[in-house]
TrEMBL record, chain A:
GO terms for molecular function: structural constituent of ribosome. This is 28S ribosomal protein S22, mitochondrial. GO terms for cellular component: mitochondrial small ribosomal subunit. It comes from Cryptotermes secundus. It holds the Pfam family MRP-S22. The lineage of its organism: Eukaryota, Metazoa, Ecdysozoa, Arthropoda, Hexapoda. Signal peptide: none annotated. It comes from the Eukaryota. PANTHER family: MITOCHONDRIAL 28S RIBOSOMAL PROTEIN S22, SMALL RIBOSOMAL SUBUNIT PROTEIN MS22.
From TrEMBL, chain B:
GO terms for molecular function: structural constituent of ribosome. Keywords: Mitochondrion, Ribonucleoprotein, Ribosomal protein. This is Small ribosomal subunit protein bS16m. It is found in: Mitochondrion. Pfam families: Ribosomal_S16. It comes from the Eukaryota. It comes from Cryptotermes secundus. The lineage of its organism: Eukaryota, Metazoa, Ecdysozoa, Arthropoda, Hexapoda. Its main location: mitochondrion. Belongs to the bacterial ribosomal protein bS16 family. InterPro entries: Ribosomal_bS16, Ribosomal_bS16_dom_sf. NCBIfam families: S16.
Length: 340, 112
């Protein structure tokens, strides 16, 4: 008898504990890391800006997006005026290259403001109320829905998008999602290499926490990565989020290889530093970068964390040889000039 | 000289004002402006100000769209404007929004 009651007690306790364990396991599996605080960190922003590699010719080039072209203006400037103009252009370029934010996919259910059972079946249709008062942005604007069952709730993101687009249309943004973001058409566009066009339009059409936006951008980034067309995104506002996406998904190896092969060691170092900040559990986190020791810093990453170790090691070796040869030539030139 | 649909009508000081619908659209396709105007004037005379719109017909998502400028509606209600019954019904359906909207206006004033 005693034994049976003990048994029952034990089972009850065990099941409750097991349930707790199961629920925590489920939570940790479903709870994804939020990239926003890391992305907006000032260090990370600086690294991303460095990786973007600003080229003013590319930033201010004309895009064929249907806007009529303006005739260029020619001016005579003194040196000071030219410096001033260049400084202004750099400021403007910085504004143009502001990166679209990388945030978590939204999941939240719309907040219910009140249950009014008296209003049940007040109408056969929902009522969507939009506050069109002056001075609110699209994200702040109050949009609520009175459902058929009488509850008053905030609008879902989809409804918000439609209402904002109905009452405050923005040129280029469409009420319905353009067909180009559907899978088959998107694939064709990416095969043709129109990455920047796709990303620009996705920025305009969607909110950054929209699941469709994140799908489209991830697909595009993967296409760029697969085709290794890194130059098509460089000097655009999308290179930062692209590099962040690679670091987030632990697949920076191809980009790193490209940087080593083109002898951009400072950028390679920035990329690895970004990787360390995004993935603090990486094995090579303990290695610190000191100016002048780029090769050993990269070597530490390649040895412990990279997935394409052999290729990267070969490229790095070639780069070391290149630097050695360059130093030798320089020393020879100095010697020839009589500086020992 | 016709006045714009959004308002511009003469404002008289001591006469009653009313917030009401004004039918626009065309035959078999009603569309209403929510306007504030002199109570004794007929519907299509000039209005003092437009405060919103109301689309009476349901759209493909089974919704009726109402746009309301709550800032101005609060102003006119505070000035003692009356409301017609259909408008009062609409405002009642969005009552919490009227209250929450007041909060958001306060936060906006803080911001600037």
């Amino acid at each position: 008898m005693l034994c049976r009651s003990c048994n029952v007690l034990f089972r009850v306790q065990c099941t409750s504990k097991l349930n707790i364990m199961r629920s925590t396991a489920k939570q940790s599996a479903t709870e994804e890391r939020d990239p926003a605080p890391i992305f907006f960190n000032s260090n990370v922003q600086q690294l991303l800006k460095k990786l973007t590699r600003v080229d003013l010719n590319k930033v201010f080039r004309t895009k064929n997006y249907g806007v009529p072209l303006r005739a260029p203006e020619y001016k005579f400037l003194t040196t000071e005026e030219l410096d001033e103009a260049m400084k202004n252009a750099e400021k403007k370029a910085e504004r143009k290259l502001q990166m679209p934010p990388v945030v978590k996919v939204r999941t939240e259910e719309p907040e219910v403001l009140s249950y009014d059972c008296e209003l049940q079946d007040h109408s056969e249709t929902k009522f969507v109320f939009t506050d069109i008062s002056f001075g609110f942005s699209d994200r702040e604007r109050m949009i609520v829905v009175r459902d058929v069952n009488g509850t008053l709730r905030k609008a879902t993101p989809d409804e918000r998008h439609r209402m904002n687009e109905t009452y405050f249309p923005r040129s280029g943004r469409k009420l319905r999602m353009p067909h180009m973001f559907e899978k088959e058409y998107l694939k064709r566009l990416l095969d043709q290499g129109n990455y920047e066009f796709v990303l620009d339009r996705a920025c305009l059409q969607f909110e950054p926490d929209d699941p469709t936006y994140q799908d489209v951008t991830a697909t595009t980034y993967e296409a760029v990565e697969r085709a290794q067309h890194y130059n098509s995104l460089r000097s655009t506002r999308h290179f930062g989020p692209f590099a962040f996406h690679l670091a987030w998904n632990k697949s920076i190896d191809s980009l790193l290889l490209d940087l080593i092969e083109t002898d951009r060691l400072d950028e390679a170092v920035s990329l690895i530093q970004l990787y360390h900040i995004v993935n603090p559990e990486a094995k090579s986190v303990s290695s610190h970068f000191e100016p002048g020791l780029e090769h050993s810093f990269i070597q530490a990453y390649v040895e412990s964390d990279s997935k394409k170790r052999s290729v990267l090691e070969l490229a790095l070796q070639a780069n070391v040889e290149l630097h050695k040869q360059r130093a030798e030539v320089e020393a020879g030139v100095r010697r020839a000039h009589g500086h020992t | 000289m016709p006045f714009p649909a959004s308002g511009g009508g003469a404002y008289m000081r001591f006469t009653p004002k009313i917030i009401r619908f004004q039918r626009h659209g065309c035959t078999n396709r009603p569309f209403f402006h929510i306007v504030v105007m002199e109570k004794r004037f007929e519907q299509h005379s000039q209005v003092i100000e437009q405060l919103g719109t109301y689309d009476h017909l349901t759209n493909q998502h089974n919704e009726r769209l109402v746009a309301l400028n709550f800032e101005r509606i609060r102003y006119w209600l505070g000035r003692g404007a009356l409301t017609s019954d259909p408008v009062a019904e609409l405002l009642g359906k969005a009552l919490e929004m009227l209250l929450f909207g007041a909060l958001s206006v306060i936060s906006k004033q803080d911001k600037f």
